[in-house]
Amino acid sequence: MISIIIPVYNVGKYLSCCLDSLIQQSYNDLELICVDDGSTDNSPQILQDYALKDKRIHIITQENQGLSGARNTGINAAKGEWVMFVDSDDWLDTNCCHEVLSQIEDNTDVVLFSYIREFTKVSLPQYLFGKKKIVFDSNRAQWLQQRIIAPIDEDLRHPEKIDSLSTAWGKLYRTKIIQENHITFESTKDIGTEDLLFNVYYFTYVHKAIYIPNPMYHYRKNNFKSLTSTHKPKLIEQWEELFRRIEDWISHCEAPRMQEALENRRAMSLIGIGLNIVSSPDSLKSRYDALYEFIHKKWYCKAIQQLSLSSFPPHWKLFFFSAKYRFTFVVFILLLFIKMKINR
Fold first, then answer.
1. Residue 79 banded pLDDT, cuts 50, 70, 90
2. What are the residues whose beta carbons fall under 8 Å from the beta carbon of 259, sequence distance 6 or more?
3. Second label for 86, Cα 20 to 30 Å away, from 13, 24, 155, 295?
C-alpha cells in the first residue's frame, strides 16, 4: 500500500483537481492522508465531500503548523509500505502509482520520477536524468545524496536546476526508513526550505534507488506569486542554519565530495538569496547595500572562491565570476534582470 500525504492549507481553488487525480489512480491500494493545516477557506468542506465519496481518504485536522508540520503529521499516521508526498495544488498522472510500483526491483529504497511544470498556457516536462530508466546501486545512491546537496563538476552546467532533485514530491519513499530513523521535516522558520534537508537525511539510508524518466507529477506554476510578495526577511540566517545542519550531518558520512557539494550549495545560494534581496520592498540603496554585505560575508567568500566556473554557460559564468571578484554592481544588475524575467 502507498500512503499519499497531502498537506492542505487554503487551496480550495485547486484541491479538487489534486484529489480527483488521486482517487482516479489505476492502482487502488492507497490511503490518502489529507492534513488540514488550519485552513480558513472552503478546503475543509471539499475534503469532507471527497471523504464521503472515497473511504481511502483520511482527514486529519490540526492548528496551523506549516508545510513541515503537516507532512510530519501525515508521516506519523502512515500505514503503507511506501510514502508519497503530493502538494495540494498539484496533481498526478492517473497511472503514476501503478507505473512507479511496477518498476521497483528487489531492495529498492526510493523511486524518483520526472515532473511537468504547469503554467497557464504551457506545460514543460522536466527530466531529472534524461529519458532512460536508471538503477542506482549503493555507491551511485551515495552520489545521489551528494547531487541533492548540490551539483559538482560538469553537472554545474545548469545551476538553475540545483533543486530539481531535492523536492519531496516526485519520489516514492520506503516508510520503514523514515519512521525507524525518525526522519522528519524541519520547520522553514528555522531553515528556510524543508525538502532539501529531509532528502539529505533520507538518502543516507538508501542502498538502491531507481529513476523513472516518465514525467508523471504535475507541478503547478500558474498560481505563482511575485517574488516581491514572497520576500523573506530572514532567509540569509535561515539558510546559514540549513547549511550548518547539512554540514553536521555529512560530517559522519564517508563520501569524500560531500563537503565540496555543500560549498557549491553555499556559493550558488547567491541566486536565491540575491533574488530575495532585490525583491525586498526596501529602497534601491538598501537592497544594494544588503547584497554587498552578503557577498562580503566570510563564509560566502570562502565558498565562491572554490567554485569552479569552467562548466557554467556564459551568462552564469559572468554571474558567479562577478560574485567571486565581488563586483556587486554587476551582480545586482543581473539579479534585477533575472527577477524581471521571472515576474513576466
1. very high
2. 247, 250
3. 155
Full DSSP string of 141-206 = HHHHHHHHH---GGGGG-GGGTTTTT-SSSEEEEHHHHHHTT--PPPHHHHS-SHHHHHHHHHTT-
Q: What residues have CB less than 8 Å from 104, skipping those under 6 apart?
A: 111, 172, 210
**Type of residue numbered 203:** F
State phi, psi for 231 to the nearest 5 degrees: -60, 135
Say what the pLDDT of residue 341 is: 83
Q: What is the mean pLDDT of the chain?
A: 94
**CA-angle at 104, arms to 102 and 109, nearest 5°:** 145
| Sign, Cα dihedral of 250, 202, 35, 194 | positive
The residue assigned the cell 548540490 is: 150
Structure-block grid coordinates of residue 210: 531507481
C-alpha cell, 331 = 551582480
Per-residue model confidence as pLDDT tens digits over 8-37: 999 999 999 999 999 999 999 999 999 999
Tell me if the pTM is above 0.90: yes
Whole-number Å distance between alpha carbons of 118 and 326 = 37
Q: Which three cell numbers stand for residue 279?
A: 525583491
The Cα diameter of the chain in Å comes to 61
The residue ranges of DSSP E strands in the chain, in sequence order, are 2-8, 30-37, 57-62, 82-85, 91-92, 110-118, 123-126, 134-136, 171-174, 209-220
